[in-house]
Design a protein that fits this description.
Helix 3 (83-93) packs across helix 5. A hairpin with a 2-residue loop joins strand 6 (151-156) and strand 7 (159-164). The longest helix has 20 residues, at 129-148. Helix content is 39%, strand content 22%. With 170 residues, it is α/β, with parallel strands linked by helices. 33% of the residues are buried. The chain has a 7-stranded mixed β-sheet, sandwiched between helices.
Length: 170
Amino acid sequence: MIALVTGGSGSGKSAFAEDLLVALGGERRMYLATMEARDAESQRRVARHRAMRADKGFETLECPRGLDVAALPQGASVLLEDLPNWVAGELFGGDIARIPPALEALMARCRDLVIVTGNVFADGIAYDETTTHYLRHLAALAQQIACRADAVVEVVFSVPVWLKGEPVCI
């Protein structure tokens, strides 16, 4: 299964995505972490996410860029956390052209793939050209994933709203 999980900041999307991947039942669960912890706030977020998944059987692979060469085992169930950080990492410090082939490779080699993204488009703010360029890349990629995904779920106040696909009991 390929699933795209979206929601606002603090919506519960990450916890839902973890529980969804566990419910899908794969033997080997990989957590593909794309955030670079560059300051105290991001370090706290990383620590909180590690604590959330501590007892769920995930192996963590820190990979903010270069997912096309990530050492993921064939047939693993993978949680990609998250699309906005991956796009930012490649756009501003890597090579954005690496994302489509890396995504194709992930989809081909994973038993299940759950991708977390954020609803960063609904604030109505007019951004500078650099941020708008980033948001356009992120939106286009999220749309492509949603089209390919078996399931698309928006998490609102910790409540999953299934936009595409059949709900999975968690």
